[in-house]
User: What shape does this take?
Amino acid sequence: MANQLEQQSVDLRWSVPSTMLPRVWGPLNLGDRLFRTLTAVFALLLLAVLASILAVLIYESSSSMSAFGWRFLIDSTWDPVSKEFGALPLIYGTVVSSALALLQAVPLSIGTALFLSEMAPGWVRAPVSFLVELLATIPSVIYGLWGIFVLIPCMRNYVEPILSSTLGFLPLFQGPKYGVGMLTAAVILAIMVVPYVTSVSYEVFQAVPNAQREAALALGATKWEMVRMAVLPYGRTGLVGAVMLGLGRAIGETMAVTMVIGNRSEISLSLFAPGNTMASVIANEFSEATYDLYVQALVEVGLVLLLVTVVINALARLLVWSVAGPSAGARGV
Amino acid sequence: MTAVVCTLAVLTPLFLIFGYLLLEGFSSLNVSFFTQLPKPVGEVGGGMANAIAGSLTLIGMACLLGLPIGVLAGLYLAEYGHGSFGWAVRFCADVLNGVPSIVIGIYAYTLVVLPMKSFSAYAGACALGVIMLPIVARTTEEMVKLVPNSLREAALGLGVPTWRTTIWVVLRTARGGIITGIMLAVARIAGETAPLLFTAFGNQFWQRGLGGPISSLPVQIYTYAISPFDDWHRQAWAGALVLLTLIFLTSLSVRLLTRGQFRAPR
Assistant: This one.
């Protein structure tokens, strides 16, 4: 809010309506024009990098795309040995692990964000939000390392037996308990996604004007009712955006997932079964792809991953910006 | 009450991870860890000296690529980015931020490794530079926007041309914030593994020039973690402890230095 006020107030360079500025970009000073062109070129470079990533991936996967066509997305056999590449097991793995991760992460994140914005005393807010952000800075490979040696034994020896003895009638919880598998990947993804959803939700809740809260309280609402009536509905769009940002992160997460998901490119109903996601199959098989079609098929998987992530992130940013302003989420989170 | 439980549940993995790292990794940290090359499989001992040096090399080269473009693009966004082009660049920066790092690895592979026909530090640095680009650009923009307009007007009123104002007054004032933005970006790329898997590739020896495979700390941790050897696991924990400590220290200093500047108003 203060930022917007600042921009509304004194910026004499823009107080002249743009129609009155000379046709050539305002100042006729050569130094100013050169500087502005220089910085504009570098800003254009940023655009160009994104566009070139898309172009490079499309170019590099072109022969795989022409060999498989749309069947690539619906074939369920990923068999490099017999040169059959169908990405459905990978898409399935990505969707299931991300959805499960979000199912676990979103309630926890929104609860934490509510705690930070509504209930925490002032001296608690800064350290706790810093600690949550620290979670986001832990590299993926360290999550994977911890996952292999701490989480997997815990899942194999405690969590999965309990789940199969209580909920074993569901096909979701049947099958051998390896420890590695979709469920463990989902748990690690949830831990990794929580800080992103929390910090963006926190910014969204901060953007709710105090007047809304006070109005609810003045009508006699309890604290929880105030949150439910004033804060949550106002920030609903932003919350959806935060969840989608988390989804975007979960889909693209590579190292931690590669280390705990078991790396078997097959579709299986059981959550205990190993699987593969789009990102993890690239990480595992790219440097060992022995023939061109293999590499191109992997690049095509990367292209699908890129498109899905770009669409989700774009939608998410738009939703968050509509509530919390264009500077929300600028710190790389 | 539920909210407090949520917060505690969210913070528990942080303490668990750091705790296990300290528990498992601290005992393996000694001078030889930082100065020796990895020993052949089966021999106990050795260190990760080449990985640490490789990481520093890659980060330095990535900064050469990412910093000029990032800072200048951020400067453009803050000073001239009020229109639709600025909105488009800002949007692209945020989208680029969310592109999975493995996809950026494929990009660097196609652009650098394939023409050079070799894994190299250049390819790894290209990937890391592209990752750090949007972070540097956005934080530079935010920091330059925080510089009060009165400073610009004072300089302009004294007859300083706009471009000189931007460089000598605005940039100089925002330089602390920009440096913290750079530290944030460095903390992020220091831990990136996926793009380095098939660009810089990894090396068990000292790198010979920048045109060949180069090891880096996160890739070495990954290689050791998925191996079947206990000694390598031990070293992976130690390497992870070193990496995480550096990243935590960087994040802590960034947080301390920008205290009060990013607080969203209520």
In short: Residues 30 and 322 of chain A are 38 Å apart (CA to CA). Chain A has a mean pLDDT of 86.
